[in-house]
Amino acid sequence: MCGISGLISLNNELTDNDYSTVKRMSDSISHRGPDQQKIKKFDKIILANNRLKIMDLNDRSSLPMSSDDGSIWICYNGEISNFRELKDKYKLLDKYDFKGTSDTEVMIYLYKELGISFLNELSGMFAFCLVDLKKKKTWVVRDFFGIIPLFYRIKENKIYFASEIKAFYEISSLDKSLDYHSIYHYFTLAYIPGKNTPFKEVNEMRGGQLIEIDNDKNTFHFKKYYSVKYPTDNSITEKEAAKNAYDLMLDSVRRNIQSDAPIGTTLSGGIDTSAITCLIKDLGKSKNFHTYSLKMGEKSFDESKYQRLIADYCQTNHHEIVVNQEDVLNSIYTHMAHIDEPNGNGAAIPSFILAKEAKKEVSVLLNGEGGDETFSAYSIYGAYRAKNIYTKFAPKPLRKLIYNLAHKLPTSYKKLSLDFQLKRFTEGAELHPAAAHIYWRHVLTDDEKEDTILNRQGYQKTEKVMIDLYENLDYSEDFNKINFLDIEHFFIDDLLVKNDRMFLANAVESRFPFMDRILFEYMAKVPSSLRMKGITKRRYIEKLAMKNTVPKEILKRGNFGLEMPHSIWFFDTLKPLLKKYLSEEMIKKTEYLSYEKVDKLLQMHFSKKKDYGRALWCILMYQMWHEMFIEKNNYKNFLVR
Asked: What band does 414 get if pLDDT is binned at 50, 70 and 90?
């Protein structure tokens, strides 16, 4: 994993000032690749790489890299998990003079063999800029799902690109006008969705998207080269699906533990990370393999019992990292400096702390993210199916009575408390499937935002954005439409922002074996009735596949998910920070939120009338981001160096 940045001119040759700009962009993200920096300048193109040495630690595999004849150049961030298989398949060693053993070099010669269609052969995660000097063509590419980040700015006949938003701050002509419509969506989702960022001039490429540039004609166009599909094969049996899933999961883990740098895995105690660790055991490699777990300093959030069970079962070299309120306070500013944008993921700071500790032993960590998407395992998928039955058979007066009874339950701040789940379900059950899907995870409802956000005229409601996406999908099953919403937005725009920024802040690469393309595309063929049976049997095929691999104590567990107990901690050590940033003076500085309404949320939370912990956390994150990146522009003071 690395950091990339660069510049492509659409008219004149680039100057020394342009080179200096790209150098500053590259310097700003040096934490992503502290082992080596290299910049290559052509007449109309500048490529920069910050390298984190993972595959082939020798300088012969430095980046940007060229073909043996110097006609092809690539700056690259990512890992191709099947590069060795592709090297053999196309007999590349017989045809080309390889100077090293990295996956980058395989990509270069695959391009020589197949042109840009070589993308169809890859499995893994990547973002790159490839330059063909002979054809005078350049491609800027993001991987199939969008696992590796890639941002761009097109202005003044120039295309700038980089791995992180902060790199664009180094462009002297950057207009830092905020995209308040995108920030409006943040206050529903806890993340900014789609191609948008907090800034009008900076956008994010989507998964399966590329930009093709004709350097001779000075033209460019965007192209979607990959789309998620669900070509259901109803002939697949339960037994066949489980066997094939096991084989593909094992193969994905095998390919993803390839590393010349020290490697380990996260271990949450949930099914996905436990499955990865146990599959490493099946490969005969778990003994003394590094595993890393977080123990939250709050009883209802503690999963350490299950983490230790797997660590002992697989005989790993286990590291337990305790996260308390003081640890959060000590890391909160550094985390914000690296995350670059408003993000309310409560697991971001714990993830930062884990990666910081793991870096003492490893440079690569396998991660269970993507398992919920591949195996259709989120609890709200059960809620979606329950909603269909509930609204069909329960008359509206009965549903209203149940709604009223649920809302009379006392508020509990424990994780996934019964009152929280019942209130959310009965509220969301009356909505469109896509609207319900985001409602069950919402920070503030669209109605609550009407009261809280100033000058919101003309903003499209967040639920309308999701409904439009849902309705335009051509999948035959609504269940798969819901699944895709999570891949397109929750997985990429939230979970992967957390993982990428927090791990790479500490120069640790994160890999996702269960979002491997080969595995995912097989599971997408499996009927949804098998991926999830009924309302409660989520990850049905995954559990069948793992029945002889993962201890039954883990397979019987439901989804838990890493989260920080901010609702509780706001009553304690985090309270002064919350009060500071949600004060009248600080709220009015942003000129975006109504102080009166924010203060009302505070009072409701502290009087225990309603749990607004997540909403208050998201407001706190926005306030801190605004101060650091907009008001003071002092984020560099907090970066890991």
From this structure: low
Q: Is the dihedral of CA 139, 81, 371, 264 positive or negative?
A: negative
Q: What is the pLDDT of residue 561?
A: 66
- Residue of 553, 548, 541, 85 whose CA lies nearest to 279: 548
Q: Which two tokens stand for residue 276?
A: 């990865």
Burial of 524 (0-12, 13-18, 19+ CB in 10 A): buried
pLDDT one-digit tens code per residue, 448-459: 898 899 977 778
Say if residue 337's pLDDT is above 70.
Answer: yes
Pairing of strands 72-80, 263-266: unpaired
Phi, psi dihedral angles at 288 (to 5 degrees): 70, 10
Residue 324 has a CB neighbour count (10 Å cut-off) of 14
The amino acid that residue 203 corresponds to is N
pTM to 2 decimals?
0.95
Reduced to 3 states (helix: H, G, I; strand: E, B; else coil), residue 473 is: coil
Q: Which residues contact 278 (CB under 8 A, 6 or more apart)?
A: 286, 310, 313, 314, 546, 549, 550, 551
Cβ atoms of 293 and 320 within 8 Å: the answer is: yes
End-to-end CA distance of the chain: 17
429 pLDDT band (50/70/90 cuts)?
A: confident
H-helix segments, 115-259: 180-189, 238-256
Helix (H) / strand (E) containing 204: strand 203-204
In this structure, the dihedral spanned by the alpha carbons of residues 400, 403, 408 and 414, taken in order and rounded to 10 degrees, is 180
CA nearest neighbour of 232 among 611, 524, 549: 524
Give the tokens for residue 489: 């937005």
49 contact partners, CB below 8 Å, separation of at least 6: 2, 3, 4, 26, 33, 36, 37, 38, 39, 62, 63, 64, 75, 76, 77
Neighbours of 436 (CB within 10 A): 22
558 Cβ partners below 8 Å, 6+ apart? Answer: 379, 538
Instruction: Return the ∠ at Cα 528 (arms to 526 and 532), rounded to 5°.
Output: 110
Compute how many other C-beta atoms are within 10 angstroms of the C-beta atom of residue 396: 9
Q: Angle 348-358/325-339 helices, nearest 10 degrees? A: 90
| Cβ-contact 353, 501 below 8 angstroms | no
105 contact partners, CB below 8 Å, separation of at least 6: 61, 65, 98, 99
Dump pLDDT digits (tens) for 226-263: 999 999 999 999 999 999 999 999 999 999 999 999 99
Q: What whole-number distance in Å separates Cα of residue 513 and Cα of residue 278? A: 13
Dihedral sign of CA atoms 429, 431, 437, 441 in order: negative
